[in-house]
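Project outcomes to date are best conveyed with an example. Our students and postdoctoral researchers have been running inverse folding experiments weekly, and each run begins with a structure described purely in tokens. The record below, which covers 432 residues, was selected by the lab manager from last quarter's runs and is presented without edits.
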């Protein structure tokens, strides 16, 4: 990770208590490895169930991808429609999974209110802007299926989307009205504060270096200490190393960057996203943006080659802004930072039983802010025995490694130019 003080940290209003480094021996009912959004939500749920919990974070809470992302709270699958999820998972599990996705923002906002987390939570919705006629047809399917499912959604024709976005560059789109955006770093710190209030013991700068079976329990070892527990939940996601044999080959790390502009003036604010929704478009070349608490636009992107990454990334994002929002010509970028998220080919989060009472949970393919809330809680109930495999929204599997992992990682890092080319062709055809 570059830049220790990334932008979300700089503007966070949440209390940033320090947590100690683990030293010596500890015992607990459960150890959560990874202090990101998944791990913190799981720890909160385990504590709610009456368990004693230790969370081990290798850096400081909020410093990894959980605190560096775009902070959009999105109740929609990464690529699939609700009916496609039912076809993939079966009708029972598919509907359960769709329900989990649809309810995730509400669950997250309830947690924010419960712990009074100061994360600049904006609950004005999320829009998906469709860049071509083909994408618009796909977007219409998403909207109609979520509406039939009972989700709070709204269709936006070309004129309506243009008014909501302040851009004439899209064919139309749809909106999830119960979604929103927030400061993800502040969210992590606030969840940590809430977990600590509920009795969870949190340790920073305490990387788990080994998980070993010790009689009927597990021992999780760090450089300066260890914790003995009956169950372990691993939520390391993109930063999964060699803590468990073969685990890193179960996901594909994808490096992304973010750029923040200088603050927009009042006139610019009235013409760009005047309703303060978050937005993602349907291009394969990633583009999503929203305002932060300082009236800056925050946008994401990725590179194929990472030399001179900051300068190239800022130039690329500002070029996209000039295309999407011509009225912002002359606006400058002021901040750049990076992060790494995890994806899997089918875009479905993982619940993997690595050994008895040892679970892995995570991998959200860009939907982690909302999904980590319900996914962490689901994993906690599974680990504690208050829910069974049959209750889960996806099948609980053993370790699922990606076939040809090395090739898949390489392809993921090089596919960006092809995505840009296809987007350009589709957009050109749509404008004819």
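After processing, the design step wrote out the following sequence:
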């Amino acid at each position: 990770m570059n830049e220790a003080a990334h932008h979300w940290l700089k503007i966070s209003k949440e209390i940033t208590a320090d947590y100690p480094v683990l030293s010596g021996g500890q015992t607990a009912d459960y150890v959560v490895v990874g202090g990101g959004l998944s791990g913190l939500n799981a720890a909160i749920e385990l504590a709610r169930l009456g368990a004693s919990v230790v969370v081990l974070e290798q850096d400081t809470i909020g410093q990894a991808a959980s605190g560096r992302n775009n902070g959009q709270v999105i109740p929609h699958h990464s690529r699939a429609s609700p009916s496609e999820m039912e076809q993939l998972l079966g009708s029972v599990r598919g509907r359960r999974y769709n329900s989990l996705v649809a309810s995730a923002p509400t669950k997250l906002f309830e947690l924010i209110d419960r712990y009074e987390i100061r994360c600049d939570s904006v609950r004005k919705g999320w829009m998906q802007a469709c860049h071509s006629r083909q994408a618009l047809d796909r977007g219409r399917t998403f909207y109609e299926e979520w509406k039939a499912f009972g989700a709070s959604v709204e269709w936006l024709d070309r004129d309506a989307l243009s008014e909501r976005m302040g851009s004439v560059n899209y064919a139309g789109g749809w909106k999830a009205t119960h979604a929103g955006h927030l400061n993800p770093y502040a969210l992590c710190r606030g969840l940590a504060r809430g977990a600590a209030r509920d009795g969870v013991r949190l340790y920073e700068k305490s990387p788990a270096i080994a998980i070993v079976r010790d009689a009927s329990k597990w021992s999780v070892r760090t450089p300066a200490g260890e914790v003995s527990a009956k169950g372990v939940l691993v939520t390391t996601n993109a930063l999964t190393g060699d803590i468990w044999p073969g685990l890193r080959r179960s996901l594909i790390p994808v490096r992304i960057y973010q750029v923040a502009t200088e603050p927009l003036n009042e006139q610019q604010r009235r013409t760009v996203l005047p309703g303060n929704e978050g937005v993602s478009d349907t291009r394969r070349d990633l583009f999503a943006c929203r305002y932060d608490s300082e009236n800056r636009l925050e946008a994401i992107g990725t590179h194929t080659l990472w030399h001179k990454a900051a300068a190239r990334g800022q130039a690329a994002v500002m070029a996209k802004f000039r295309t999407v929002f011509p009225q912002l010509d002359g606006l400058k970028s002021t901040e750049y930072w990076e992060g790494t998220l995890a994806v899997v080919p089918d875009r479905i989060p993982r619940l993997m039983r690595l050994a008895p009472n040892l679970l892995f949970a995570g991998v959200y393919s860009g939907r982690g802010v909302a999904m980590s809330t319900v996914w962490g809680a689901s994993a906690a109930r599974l680990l504690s025995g208050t829910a069974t495999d049959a209750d889960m929204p996806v099948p609980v599997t053993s370790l699922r490694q990606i076939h040809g992992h090395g090739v898949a990682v390489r392809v993921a890092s090089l596919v960006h130019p092809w995505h840009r080319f296809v987007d350009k062709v589709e957009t050109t055809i749509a404008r004819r």
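The chain has one domain: 7-425. The domain at 7-425 is CATH 3.50.50.60 (FAD/NAD(P)-binding domain). The training component of this project remains on track.
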